[in-house]
Amino acid sequence: MKNKSFILIMILPTLILISFIILYPTISGVLLSFKNYSLFNFGNIKWIGFENYNEIFSDIFYIDVIWNTIKWIFFSVFFQLILGFILALLMKEPFKGRGIYAGLVFYPWAVSGFAIGLIWSWLLNGQFGVINDILMKFGIIKKSINFLSDPSIALYSVILVNIWYGIPFFAIMILAALQSIPNSLYEAAEIDGAGYFTKLIKITIPYIKPTLINTVLLRIIWVMNFPDIIYGMTRGGPAGSTEILSVKMINTVFYESNYSLAAAHGVIIVLILLIYTIMYLKLTSKKEFNI
Amino acid sequence: MKIIKFILLALFLIFALFPLYWIILTSFKPVNELYTFPIQYWTKSPSLYGYRKLFEFVNFKRYFLNSVIVSVLASFISTFFAMLTGYILSRKEFKGKYALILFLFFSQMIPSYLIMVPQYIMFSELKLIDKLISIIIVYSGIGAAFSTIMARGFFDRIPKSIEEAALIDGCNEFQTLFKITIPLMLPGLSAVMSFSFVNNWNELFTAVIFLNTSNKFTVPVGLYSIISKAGIQWNVLAAGIVIALLPTILVFAIAQKYIIAGLTQGSLKD
Q1: Looking at beta carbons, which residues of chain A come within 8 Å of B116?
Q2: CB distance B81–A22 less than 8 Å?
Q3: Which of A39, A256, B62, B160 has the most CB atoms around its CB within 10 Å?
C-alpha cells in the first residue's frame, strides 16, 4: 500500500468527524449571528446584519458582564496558579502514600463543574450552610453571610469555588514539570550555599517557566469558557451579579431562546479569545504554541 | 520545615475532601436532620431516604443507564479515531501536517457551548433531536480533537525501532500498527479513553438542549431537572450528586496515573 493512501485512510475519519461537529457549526454559528433565528420567529428567518451585535453593545448591563468576566478570570487563575504551585512544591519530594494522596487531593478535577456548583451552593447556603457554621464556631464571623444571595459578594463566592476546583489542574501540570528538573542543578546550587527560596527563584521557576506560560494560557481560555460552576450555584444571579460572558450566552439560549443573539455573544467571545491568544503569544515571545 | 510541610499537605487535603464528605453525609441524613440547628456534623440515624426518593421520584436509573451508554460509546469512538490519527501525526511527515495540528488545536479551543446551537439546528434537520445518538456523535467529535493530541504524545514515547523490525519481517503497516504498536499503547489509550469518558459523563449544556423527554436524560440533565423542581429536599439531590460522582471518581482513581501522564506529556510539550 502506498504511503499516501495509508496516511489518508488514517486521518480521514477524524477529519470528517471534526469538520462535521466543530468546523461546520462554527461557520454556521457565525452566519447565524447575522440572522434573526429565535424560538418565536421560526417562520420568518432572514438576514438582519449587525442588529444582534447592536443589541448586545447597547445593553447598559453588558459592561458589568465584561467586568464580572475579567474579575472571574483574574482572581480564579491567579489563586489557582499560586495554590497549585504550592501544592506541587509540597508533593515534589516522594513521601509515603503520595500516590493515594494525589488521588484524593486531585479528585475535584474529575467531577463535573455543575455538580461542584451544586455541592458548594449547599455548603454556602445562608441559612443551613456548614461554612457559615464553621466560621461562626471559630469566631471569624458573628452572623451568617448570604454568600450567594447578596449581590455584592456572590461573585467572590463563585470565584472561591472555581479556585478550589482549579487547583488540581495547576498542581498536576506544575508537578510534572518539577519532576523533570535535573537534580544536579540543585546539588550545584547547594554547594554554592543556596537556601530554599534562592533555589526556588534561581532554578525552579526559570526551569518550569514554559509550563507555567502554556498552562496559564490554556487556563485563561478555559476559565473564560466555563459557565458550569456558576450554573450550579447561581445561574448568573442574584441581579446578574455572577453573570459572566459564557453564562450570559447560555441564558440567552435557555431563557430567551434567541439563538441568533446567543450566537452573536459566542462570536464576540471567540474574537476576544483570538485577540487574547495572539497578544499573549507575542508578549511571552513564543513564535508558536508548542503542541 | 517537615512539620510545616505536613500541616500544609493536611490542609490541602481537608480543603479538597470536606465538600465531598459533606455531600455524602447529607445524602444519608434523614429529613429531620437536614434543616436543624445546631448543624449536625455526623448523623446518628443514617437513612437511605434520599436514595430511595431519587429512584421513585425521578427516573434516575434510566438517566444513569443513558449516561453509561453515551459516555462509553462516545469515548470509545473518539479514542479509536484519535488512535489512527495520533499514530500518523507521531510517525509520518506529510504536506499539511502542521496545518492539521493547528486545526486540531483550534477546534479544541472553540468552546462546545458556542457551537451547540448550530449543532442543534443541524441535528434537528437530520431528525435526530431527542435521541441519544445525537449527543454520542457530538461528544465523539468534540473528544476526537483533544484525544488525538493526547494519543500522539503517547505514541511519541514508543520507540520506532520496534515497528521497523516488524516491517522488515514482512508485516504491512496496518498489521504493524494493530499487532505491535497498539498492544504497547494500551495504557496510553486507556488514559485517552478515560479522560474523554470523564468529560462526556460530566457534559451538561449540549445534553440539556438536545434531550427533551425524561427517559432520554443523562445524569447531569437529570440533576438539572431536579433542581428546577420546587420543593426538592437536599438529601435527595445530594444522593443524586453522589451517584453522579461515582463513575468518574472510580475511573479517575484507576487511570489517574496515565491520565496525568497524558495531560502533561501529550498536550503540553515544552
Answers
A1: 253
A2: no
A3: B62
Complex prediction ipTM: 0.91
Gap from A40 CA to chain B (nearest CA, Å)? 15
Output the pTM of the full model.
0.92
Is the CB of A172 inside 8 Å of chain B's CB atoms? yes
Is A43 a residue whose pLDDT tops 60?
yes
pLDDT at B57: 81
Alpha-carbon gap: A153 to the closest alpha carbon of chain B (Å): 20
Convert the pLDDT of each residue in A160-188 to its tens digit: 999 999 999 999 999 989 988 998 989 88
B170 touches chain A (CB under 8 A): no
Residue B254, min C-alpha distance to chain A (Å): 9
In degrees and rounded to multiples of 5, residue B210 shows phi and psi of: -80, -30
Residue A261 has pLDDT above 90, yes or no: yes
pLDDT in tens, B171-209: 888 888 888 899 989 989 999 999 999 999 999 999 999
Which of A29, A228, A250 lies closest to B115 in CB terms? A29
Residue of chain A whose Cα is closest to the Cα of B263: A173
